[in-house]
Amino acid sequence: MSQSIPSPGKKKSAVIQDWRPEDAQFWASTGKKIANRNLWISVFCLMLAFCVWMLFSVVAVNLNKVGFNFTTDQLFLLTALPSISSAILRVPYSFVIPIFGGRVWTTFSTCFLLLPCVWLGFAVQDTTTPYIVFIIISLLCGFAGANFASSMGNISFFFPKAMQGGALGINGGLGNLGVSVMQLLVPLAISTAIFVGLSDSTSGSGYGIWLENAAWIWVPLLVIATLAAWFGMNELATAKSSLREQLPVLKRGHLWMLSLLYLCTFGSFIGFSAGFAMLSKTQFPDVMIMHFAFFGPFIGALARSAGGIISDRLGGVRVSLFTFIVMAIFTGLLFLTLPGESSSGSFIAFYSVFMVLFFAAGLGSGSTFQMIAVIFRKLTLDRVKAAGGSDETAQREAVTETSAALGFISAIGALGGFFIPQTFGLSLSMSGSPAGAMKVFLVFYLVCIAITWLVYGRKKNN
Question: Could you tell me if 151 and 27 are in contact, meaning their C-beta atoms sit under 8 angstroms apart?
């Protein structure tokens, strides 16, 4: 069967009827170019989504500097809430691509992010803005985090099985890079009056901070990304399926075990990204942490891309097991860096240990996602064929269930962005130290080591 694809700029050519990524000739002549174009537009949109998702990790640190008077617990809550709405929304977002199509949904979900950005820009300029308004905006920022579920599910349809780990690693890893891009650019942006004439804020509380820039600098980029998605992306007719066809994935036992592993990796990455700056400020108040906070998410995002590619070669189970062990070891080392009754702690050691944790969490995010794709595809193919289904039916169900599983598991992973900052905040309020929170994380990492080895490692499911 041949494929005729007119210019992608025309709306009528957006839906591709014939898509055979496992056909080497088709992939080389037609599929690779189309898949890569969709991948890079998806990366751009997802990167901006992560910028918006984690906005409050920087905004919360600066709110009191421009005249607000929120408590530490309130500020930690603002950094955590986007991950709650993100986790909840990732569940429906994980099923929307086969229903609405990747191009339509990417366009809509990217455009929606203009709402929290524009609103936040105005809210931070008025010190009488009630705390509940910031809660609502924070929850709206969580819509950005939900985009990850639909984006990863969409990209998984475009690439052959042998390249899915790398493609998902690039999409997720470079998308995750938005956290560090935001944490690098926002401190620079809020120190300059970029939007002259749009803001009445001139100096905050004498700090020379234009906090509205933290939100408004993303508005023009979101407009560009929305247009790029609409005019440059495609939809695959072969990837269409109903909600009823996708829901059986929730009955699979492996869905819940892999969700736990992904919560360990990506949950740690996004949770540390959300809470690291505030945590550092409480432990080492003399350090200008916003000069350094961006580097952890940067390392983790690049490591995620590498994790997917390495897992395609070495196996996701091996790479994941390695990352869980590293995370457990360095979580234990973190206790030695904290201030205590007899020690002022070491920021250099504290920062260095966290950089390793960011690296391991990022690497593991890529490897566990590769595990999900490989394991679900294999299990679905085996189940359908064992029931007498044809190869075509088995392949179609494998694609549907794998995409749904990737999206749903990503929803569980997003919960780390809420629980980690909140656990830090609770530990600090109870004991004045984050040590209690780190003990909880250490036990969790040890549990994930056991699950990875006992369930997947001994069976060579890599």
Answer: no
Domain assignment present for 2: no
Segment 398-446, tens digit of pLDDT: 667 777 777 778 778 878 878 888 888 888 888 888 889 999 999 999 9
Check: pTM over 0.70? Answer yes or no. Answer: yes
CATH code (residue 432): 1.20.1250.20
The number of beta carbons lying within 10 Å of the beta carbon of residue 243 is: 12
Which two tokens mark 314? 């070495």
Coil/strand/helix, residue 310 = helix
**376-391 residue pLDDT tens:** 777 777 777 777 777 7
**C-alpha neighbours within 13 Å on the C-beta side of residue 355:** 12
What range does the domain containing 82 cover? 12-457
Q: How far apart are CA 67 and CA 200, in angstroms?
A: 14
Token digits of residue 386? 């064992």
- The DSSP bridge pattern shows strands 235-236 and 15-16 to be parallel
Q: Which residues are CB-neighbours of 202 under 8 A, at least 6 positions away?
A: 193, 210
The SS3 of residue 339 is coil
